[in-house]
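debug: dumping io for the single-chain case to check the tokenizer round-trip. Nothing else runs in this session.
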Amino acid sequence: MIRYELSQLIEGAIQAAQRSGDLPEFDIPEATVEHPRDPTHGDYATPVCLQMARWAHMAPMKIAPIVVKHLPQADFIGQVEVAHPGFINFTLSDSWLTSQVETILIAGQCWGDLNLERGRKAQVEFVSANPTGPLAVHRTWGAVLGDTIANILAAVGYDVTREYYFNNAGRQMRLLGESVRARYRELLGQPAELPEEGYQGDYIWDIARDILEKKGEGLLEANWEPFKERAEAWVFQNINATLDRFGLHFDVFYNENSLHESGRVDQVIQDLTQRGYAYHKDGAVWFRAQEFGAEKDRVLVTSTGEPTYRLPDIAYHVHKLQRGFDLIVDIFGADHHAQWPDVVAGVSALGYDTSGIKVIIHQFISLIKDGQPVKMSTRAGEFVTLDELLDMVTTESIPGKDVVRFMLLTRSPDRSMVFDLDLAVKQSDENPVYYVQYAHARIASILRFAEERGSDSKGGNVALLIHPSELALIRQMLLLPEVIEQAALELTPHRLTYYAQQLASAFHAFYRDCRVVSSDPADAELTKARLKLARAAKVVLARTLSLMGMTAPEQM
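debug: decoded output
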């Protein structure tokens, strides 16, 4: 990428200046290259001269011209300027910029791909909703974050595994079985009572009816376990159908029960005990979490013999590391904020390197419609499912999954999200989803119009693209690799939505300022060049949308 090439050129110029005696000898710092806040200052800038001042015993404004003097020629550098208090600003050359249109067209849907992490394995765990009910909206943010991060990591070279941790053990599953059993008995006119904290949604009745239809009265005297098994299968089928509708596909569905059946959970307790990090007290098994910075030790197994969430999660993450993943990304909701540090501490206590485990905690989603909040609570049965949300925001122009994905990626996960259902269905520039996808559809329309008139981009001379709006669009298209790299390093997929809106804005400005298909024969060559630019913009828009798991519509 240009930033790295510039950095190398700058460091080489400093070395050359030292060899010539223009600068004294000192250890050369890394030449950081960044985008100036003010675009009139150029495309890139480096503050390296400010860093070198104390070692060179010279003012930055004296160092900068020396570095510039020793800079080698490069075809992508158009102009170099020294700016107070010692920055060196770089402007890309117009000829090089226009040549990149061809580069983008050749790359196609691989544009932006980087080989930075080639040969390394990454695992992204997301959604991982307990199989106790349909997939509710509050799980959706994690789904969008996880899938987009997986796409971004693949783009920088990782071999990515998408994984769903199927938490089908523990107290919540017993409550599910008891809840379904109660409804089943009620359908048969038998006395029944929901357990305290049981599940009350209408779907519990649906599961009970399904069991009654298939088993009749055969389970009337059964305990909660067969109801749990059948409810789990029903819920998983429902969740899987929703995930498919949302465009989510997993490589692995990891079953929590397997951790218990394989002995991995028991092994964690044994190993922690041998290492002195687990102990028995008041009939429970405790983890010495205080030794890892927690306010107090944590219970791993309660006095009733039931494991807490932390124990199987520690076993699960140990197995992740044993499977050879170099990077492990966990996407959790805000209700896990107190739990995950103990899980990572438990893995560390077992002697594993946890530096490759990255945890993203997202806040909860609030839905509003007509300015009023929409209530959500899974156990109380007052919740909006993802399917219902998709139904609400699907329009003729935009699939519901695209709307939900884009809207949820417009916010950093550490900030609360208010999902405005009224805005989501607007077909205007107010709706950022519509604004971006319309740019792609507009290009498709232009290309169809050109084809009908017998025009195409074949043989188009991109050197003719000298209008400021044309060059501004090319500059935006060239930023995608940098956006992908930063999003991968920081695990910040929301960068893509900001970039997509800037790219769409640059295209709309180009369309406003430059007539793409001209009827004037004198503009025939310029038309070809502009059609080539439009095709390249279409490629970059489609690539950006695909990274977010969204469609690139041909018409709207």
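debug: round-trip ok. The radius of gyration is 29 Å.
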